[in-house]
Amino acid sequence: MPPADRLKAVRTEIYENTDVFKKIIHDKTFVKYFGELSAEDKLKQPPKGFPKDFSDIDLLKYKHYTVAKNISEDLIVSKQYIKETIDTFKVLYPFNQFINEAINYQLSLDN
Q1: Which positions ≥6 away from 44 have C-beta within 8 Å?
Q2: Distance (Å, rounded) from C-alpha 19 to C-alpha 72?
Q3: Contact between residue 42 and residue 36 where contact means Cβ atoms under 8 Å apart
Q4: 75-87 residue pLDDT tens
Q5: What is the pLDDT of residue 18?
Q6: Among 12, 24, 50, 71, which one is least packed by beta carbons within 10 Å?
Q7: Do 57 and 50 contact (CB within 8 A), yes or no?
Q8: Structural domain harbouring 106
């Protein structure tokens, strides 16, 4: 889980750019590779500082923003592993970029 200030930065970015974030996480290829965001740890109530009536409030309840992709042992030892790894990171890039830009922006304000 990220520190509170970074988590708030990510939530703020999602709140302010919801359509961009939803486009990333609902992209067909993204969903094919990663499914949905990991919902293991979510707040029951909206996070402090955000309007409770925000239409996409569930996107702000995550305690961390994590995705995962299961791979088989067969893939790991195959000739396709490197290509599959590269393809996976290409699909993951917009998600990581969104999260990192939110955190980097917050860090720039703190300095």
Answers
A1: 61
A2: 33
A3: no
A4: 999 999 999 999 9
A5: 97
A6: 71
A7: yes
A8: 4-110
Identity (one letter) of the amino acid at 38? S
Question: Is residue 104 a contact partner of residue 5, using CB atoms and an 8 Å limit?
Answer: no
DSSP assignment of the chain equals ---HHHHHHHHHHHHHTHHHHHHHHT-HHHHHHH-SPP-SSB-SSPPTTS-TT-TTGGGG-BSS--------HHHHTSTTHHHHHHHHHHHHHHHHHHHHHHHHHHHHHH-
pTM more than 0.85? yes
In angstroms, rounded to a whole number, what is the distance separating the alpha carbons of residues 64 and 73? 28
Distances (CA, A) of 97 to 13, 35, 56, 93, 102: 12, 18, 21, 6, 9
